[in-house]
């Protein structure tokens, strides 16, 4: 009977996850960089979801009720998980309650997925220690949560070890590997695309180095993953010309302005945050080196040390030529995001080194490997302690009046999601609030639902009626089965409908674009294929047919938006 059973390890992982998040949970809403975005998005997303909008792309109540296309582009997976907690809280506590519950779920889940993966390459005890370190190392905890509240990146760290778990299974001829790997990749795609761009080459390289004949299985898994996530991916990639994407391709968001160790402190760079990132990167590569010194003869260790070196270099100006020739890489925006890959590789190296720790019992005290292990432990301890600094600096109330006002009116402060017809001067807190108060003298609202509006117009002549909703491609209007013209109002970008003279009931809908329909169809077909793949693993025909039938219904509902 092993000392640490799976059950006891699960309890330990869950308890530590809650413990390290307790300061944030106890404090409530705090002054992290991106927390303001996710407070608004989670509230609007979950509200629409539970009111029947199963994929809330258009957030109707954002921007003081003028609407936002944020989830045509932003990955939805973390927000579905967050919505599960919505009904556990009162209306007053729901905003932070569901979000804080989600970060706890993600942290616990990341611990479990690392534990699953590390057991494949080490033993149960070191897998537990590695899991605890993965959760608590500062890029995961201090940066992605306490300092930035990078919600999507934080959730992405759940899926990286799961991908590696199924990649390892795939190499060792597991029958369930393709099905598991495809879902893991799909979850990552629907969580955070930049992390996929950084991490996919790592898992592919792992297969090529260990079992090149299995590459075709990886290719199938990735293809199926892309198809499964097409419901999100196609609209996100094909409709970007409707928003202000240039806002994240310049200044503080331009990749060339965000290399570590460049000493390029621009006005929008927080020097403390910058030094924190640099310290984390140096600390992690130092720990990786110490761990590798102990286990250099192991193939697994050599691979992960190589990943560590490459990941570290990708955060520095040395890698500029690579970034310059790869446009997909440039969309990552921040080279220091490669710290996420470095986090995974360092966790692997630490676990491998700890699994071999018994060799030190017979070594002299000053042996190089024992010194390396000691230094590595000290460095790891030092890095863990830096989380306290991040908590101290960021765990404070939001005190910026503009941010507070934006939260109150649900202003979309992610500027790239400004519909391009809205002039920048009309996308400020004050302007948004004023637009939301515009009178609608010639119309009476009968229905105001996401993507579906109904109003009664009464005009003496044919007129343009301006609605308190932003224009977006796909809006169409009709009355008495007659299609009406729609257009964006000049400068304000509000939706205008041309109504005939007289009394009319007008229906206005935001229809599904061709990319939305194609994405739904592809995902539905992929779901059936994935279901058929699962059914081949079922132990009986009855189970197989039941599974396939249920997945078939899900696919139909997915396509026709009934589910």
TrEMBL record:
Q: Which InterPro entries match?
A: Membrane_prot_PTPS-rel_domain
* Keywords associated with the record: Membrane, Transmembrane, Transmembrane helix
Membrane-spanning residues: 12-30, 71-91, 103-121, 127-147, 154-171, 183-208, 215-234, 273-296, 303-326, 338-359, 371-391, 517-535, 542-562
Domain Membrane protein 6-pyruvoyl-tetrahydropterin synthase-related intervals: 73-375
Q: Does the entry feature the keyword Chaperone, yes or no?
A: no
Q: What is this protein called?
A: 6-pyruvoyl-tetrahydropterin synthase-related protein
Source species, please? Leptolyngbya boryana CZ1
